[in-house]
Design a protein that fits this description.
Layout lengths: L5 E3 L1 H13 L4 E3 L6 E5 L3 H11 L8 E3 L6 H4 L5 H10 L4 E6 L14 E5 L4 H10 L3 E2 L14 H7 L6 E3 L11 E4 L6 E4 L5 H8 L26 E5 L12 E5 L2 H6 L10 E3 L4 H16 L5 E5 L8 H10 L4
Parallel strand pairs: 1-8, 4-6, 5-9, 11-14, 12-13, 12-14
Antiparallel strand pairs: 2-3, 3-7, 4-7, 5-6, 9-10
The chain binds threonylcarbamoyladenylate and magnesium ion.
C-alpha cells in the first residue's frame, strides 16, 4: 500500500469504516485509551492484515473488542463470576479481561494461545462501529511494532503512512495509555499490564486480592520489554541530574517545578521542553503525545524526569520503563 492515510470523520466516517471492516479491511479507530487498528476478529485474512500493517510477529495475541459484555460467552469457553463483577464495574471502559477461549475462535487472533483478551471500549465512535457491523473487532494499538502508541488521528496517519488506508478522527484519547489487562484464568487474578484501572479499584470490585506484574513473571509473546519506543534514545533521570549540561541534542520531559528550575539553562518551553501535569491521570493522558512531539525534533536523547513511585503512577512508570528499553 502506498500513499497517505485518509482521515475519516463523523457519521460518514463511521459508515465508511463499517463498510470496509465488513469487507475484511483494516481501519484505525479511536478508543478512550489509544487509537486501535481494527479488523474483523472472525476473519483470519483480515486479522493477518493487522499483523502485516504493524510489522508485528504473528504469535503476539490481539485484544477482541465487543459491543457489550453479553457477547463474552461467544468468545470465552467459560465466564467466571469474577468476570461479570468486573464488567459490571468497568465496562464500557479501559479494562481488558483474559479468559479461556472458545475452540471456535480463530487461533490467528490469540497468537495460538488458548486464552483470549477482550474488552468493551467506551469511545462513542468505536461503539457505533461495533453496533453497525455486529462484529467482534481485533484491535492492537495503531502503531508500527515497538513504536509509540498513537493518541491522535494525526499520529496514526504519520506513523502508518503507506501501511493502512484510513483512520477515523475521534479526537485525542481520554486516557492516553493502553487498557489495564487482568488475567482471570488463574486462581488469583493477575494484572498483566498496568493501565487506567488501578489494582486497588480491581480489588475493591472483586473483593479479593489481585497480583501485579512485580510479583509474578509473565511469559507471553507481545509482552516485551522493548516497547512503546520513540526514535530518540529515552533516558529517565533524577530531578537533580537534569542540571548537568547535556551531551548532544537533547529534549526534556518534566513534571516538577524543581526540574523546571534545573533545566532552565538548557531547555526552553515550546522548543525542547515539555512540562506535564504533576498528577498521574493527566500526565498519562498527555504522555504519548508529548513523546511524539519531542521525537519530531529529531533530537538524540529525550531526558525524562523520574515520576513518583506510588501505585497511582504504575501505568505511567510501566510505559516509561519500557520506552527507556530497560527491564
Ligand atoms: O487499550 C488497549 O488495550 C488498546 C486499544 C486499541 O484497545 N489495545 C492494545 O492492544 O493495547 P495491543 O495489541 O497493543 O496490546 C495488547 C496486549 C499485548 O501486550 C498482548 O501480549 C496482550 O495484550 N494479550 C492479548 N491477548 C493475550 C493473551 N491471550 N494472553 C496474554 N496476553 C495477551
Ligand atoms: Mg501496542
Amino acid at each position: 500500500m502506498t500513499g497517505q492515510v485518509q482521515i475519516l470523520r463523523g457519521e460518514e466516517g463511521v459508515e465508511e469504516a463499517s463498510r470496509r471492516l465488513i469487507n475484511g479491511e483494516c481501519v484505525a479507530l479511536p478508543t478512550e485509551t489509544v487509537y486501535g487498528l481494527a479488523a474483523d476478529a472472525g476473519n483470519p485474512a483480515a486479522v493477518k492484515a493487522i499483523f502485516t500493517a504493524k510489522g508485528r510477529p504473528t504469535d503476539h495475541p490481539l485484544i477482541v473488542h465487543l459491543a457489550s459484555a453479553a457477547q463474552l460467552p461467544e468468545w470465552a469457553s467459560e465466564v467466571p463470576n469474577s468476570a461479570w463483577q468486573l464488567t459490571e464495574a468497568f465496562w464500557p471502559g479501559p479494562l481488558t479481561l483474559l479468559l479461556h477461549k472458545k475452540s471456535t475462535v480463530t487461533p490467528h487472533v490469540t497468537g495460538g494461545l488458548e486464552t483470549i483478551a477482550m474488552r468493551v471500549p467506551s469511545h462513542p465512535v468505536f461503539q457505533a462501529i461495533l453496533e453497525q457491523t455486529g462484529l467482534g473487532l481485533a484491535a492492537p494499538s495503531a502503531n508500527r511494532y515497538k513504536k509509540l502508541s498513537p493518541t491522535t488521528a494525526e499520529q496514526v496517519a504519520r506513523g502508518m503512512a503507506g501501511r493502512i488506508s484510513a483512520v477515523i478522527d475521534g479526537g485525542p484519547c481520554k486516557f492516553g495509555l493502553e487498557s489495564t489487562i487482568i488475567d482471570l484464568t488463574q486462581t488469583i487474578p493477575a494484572v498483566l499490564r498496568a493501565g487506567p484501572i488501578t489494582r486497588a479499584a480491581l480489588e475493591e470490585a472483586l473483593g479479593q486480592p489481585v497480583s501485579t506484574p512485580e510479583n509474578h513473571s509473565i511469559a507471553v509473546p507481545g509482552n516485551v520489554e522493548a516497547h512503546y519506543q520513540p526514535e530518540a534514545r529515552l533516558q529517565r533521570v533524577q530531578t537533580s541530574e537534569l542540571s548537568i549540561s547535556p551531551e548532544g541534542s537533547t529534549a526534556y520531559l518534566i513534571w516538577s517545578d524543581a526540574a523546571a528550575a534545573a533545566v532552565a539553562d538548557f531547555a526552553k518551553a515550546g522548543e525542547n521542553l515539555l512540562h506535564l501535569p504533576a498528577e498521574p491521570e493527566p500526565y498519562g493522558q498527555a504522555l504519548y503525545t508529548a513523546l511524539h512531539q519531542l521525537d519530531q525534533l529529531d533530537v538524540q536523547t529525550i531526558l525524562v524526569e523520574f515520576t513518583p513511585t506510588d501505585e497511582s503512577w504504575a501505568a505511567v512508570n510501566d510505559r516509561l520503563r519500557r520506552a527507556a528499553g530497560a527491564g
